[in-house]
């Protein structure tokens, strides 16, 4: 057979593509459950991390998660609880595209050493791609006790610094409400926040848009939880 | 048929293994695959995993392409090579995600970028298309190892000087907030060199490796 004929080239291409597609589809499907377990465990680790339960291995994550997380609520925009939705399964990536009234807002209530914490999942936009994270509030629903952030494709060394400890630990102790209990959120301040500022943290030099993204994300997400916080 | 009679580890075949380690190293002599050498050599662990991933991909793709080299239509050979490399890379990525999740997060996009690693395509085009599977296998092992050698060497320097650790274990002592609380070298006032963590230092480290290699290996010096 003439190896340079069009027919041969086409047949060869079709055969090899089919074989490879089959192989890849098989691998992807058979490894999916394991991969999903990893993603789920990582989510649990992140949630626990915001209330200071760190150093949990992925294998222990589920056990520890069930130990500390007492309630997983799916809230409606008016602050009532939708009992028919599993909060852990809400994927913010898609949820956030819906109308505010149709969205369900996941809230994790943790208990550690007799104290209650409220953990709010975050999702927003950085400079290049999505950023997300978790922020934990103390029982006063005002003081931040911990936060962590992650990103898909921010610039390493600049925007990607949001995943570092120095950026994340700044949020601890900041407040989301002002003295008259109005919501003001926490903002990353370009040029550095004043030490006595309860609502500001230092933004990342060279990562202004990512820092702004973090501020916007916290503001937008937390604002939907205020009705629930007010009534409970 | 001459190939069949040749001993498995003939002198020629041994050279396939040893050449890429020194005389014909893919990074330090051919200067290929530099991008990944810069990107993932901040720490030793991802460098080792990346080396293993590239080693696997270059060996497997070499053997596969070599096996079907007489069937591949000349006009679409590059696409076919790319297809094989890409699927192997996806396999590696999927397996890492399932069994070594932390490492896969750390390597993130760089696993995918093995596809564009010039070493892989280079070996397919230059070697596997014209040689049998066994020779191609050896060539893959040699080149993968040559790549790994430089990557690990660079990573050792960068992690040791940049963060005082190897594989995440503190080698030079513990650095606390004050000198008094520190141990090891840090107690003497030693500071980590933050520059080593930035990509340009990888390039400079590779440069120094090339310099040392050339001064030791006279064959590599161009005659003018």
From TrEMBL, chain A:
It is found in: Cell membrane. Its EC number is 7.2.1.1. The keyword Nucleus does not apply. It catalyses: a ubiquinone + n Na(+)(in) + NADH + H(+) = a ubiquinol + n Na(+)(out) + NAD(+). One of its GO terms (molecular function) is oxidoreductase activity. NQR complex catalyzes the reduction of ubiquinone-1 to ubiquinol by two successive reactions, coupled with the transport of Na(+) ions from the cytoplasm to the periplasm. NqrA to NqrE are probably involved in the second step, the conversion of ubisemiquinone to ubiquinol. This is Na(+)-translocating NADH-quinone reductase subunit C. It comes from Wenyingzhuangia heitensis. The gene is nqrC.
UniProtKB/TrEMBL annotation, chain B:
It is found in: Cell membrane; Endomembrane system. InterPro entries: NqrD, NqrDE/RnfAE. GO terms for molecular function: oxidoreductase activity. The chain crosses the membrane at residues 47-68, 80-101, 107-124, 136-157, 194-212. It comes from the Bacteria. Its EC number is 7.2.1.1. It holds the Pfam family Rnf-Nqr. It catalyses: a ubiquinone + n Na(+)(in) + NADH + H(+) = a ubiquinol + n Na(+)(out) + NAD(+). It is an enzyme of class 7 (translocase). It is a multi-pass membrane protein. The keyword Mitochondrion does not apply. Keywords: Cell inner membrane, Cell membrane, Ion transport, Membrane, NAD, Oxidoreductase, Sodium, Sodium transport, Translocase, Transmembrane, Transmembrane helix, Transport, Ubiquinone. Belongs to the NqrDE/RnfAE family. NQR complex catalyzes the reduction of ubiquinone-1 to ubiquinol by two successive reactions, coupled with the transport of Na(+) ions from the cytoplasm to the periplasm. NqrA to NqrE are probably involved in the second step, the conversion of ubisemiquinone to ubiquinol. Composed of six subunits; NqrA, NqrB, NqrC, NqrD, NqrE and NqrF. This is Na(+)-translocating NADH-quinone reductase subunit D. It comes from Wenyingzhuangia heitensis. The gene is nqrD.
